[in-house]
Design a protein that fits this description.
Elements: E1 2-14, E2 18-30, H1 38-47, E3 61-65, E4 68-72, E5 78-85, E6 90-98, E7 105-113, E8 119-125, H2 129-141
Antiparallel strand pairs: 1-2, 1-5, 3-4, 4-5, 6-7, 7-8
Length: 153
């Protein structure tokens, strides 16, 4: 899963009058942390050195936001945001068809994104059809998510 961390800095103001964020840095990470709880998010932030190792959940005020958390100091000064990016997972179906006349087999591979609904497919034939299909899959889908299951074309 991809995660965006927005680190706020150069903050001026106070609790009474409010805070003004003058700078922020945005960094993207790939992680295996689920980030479905404050504890999981804290472990992730410690692993990326955004937060000191001795910090606890109670060290910050946590606000749930869509797909993540916004962290504040006790005086409500914003510290950072952690947002999960849902890239979607790709499901795959393969069909093998054998021509009765030529006895050649054809391999059809289709891949569908669970978030966008995008479907891409390609037909492969010949003696190297499996190798070509595998290369095609890695070339076109290696950076878009993992292939997890089969679906009906």
């Amino acid at each position: 899963m991809k995660v965006v961390v927005i680190d706020y800095y150069d903050i001026i103001g106070n609790k009474k009058d409010g805070w003004d964020v003058n700078g922020q840095s945005i960094n993207t990470y790939k992680t295996r942390f689920k980030l479905d709880s404050k504890e999981s998010c804290l472990k992730f932030l410690k692993s990326t050195f955004y937060i000191r190792k001795t910090a606890r959940v109670k060290t910050f005020i946590w606000k749930n936001i869509e797909n993540g958390f916004l962290l504040f100091e006790k005086d409500m000064m914003p510290v950072l945001s952690v947002i999960k990016i849902n890239e979607g997972e790709w499901t795959m179906k393969k069909e093998t068809v054998r021509d009765k006349n030529t006895k050649n087999t054809t391999l059809r591979i289709g891949i569908k994104n669970s978030v966008t609904g995008e479907i891409l497919y390609k037909v492969f034939s010949g003696p190297k059809r499996c190798e070509e299909a595998l290369n095609w899959g890695f070339t076109h889908f290696g950076d878009k998510g993992r292939i997890i299951d089969f679906y009906d074309l």
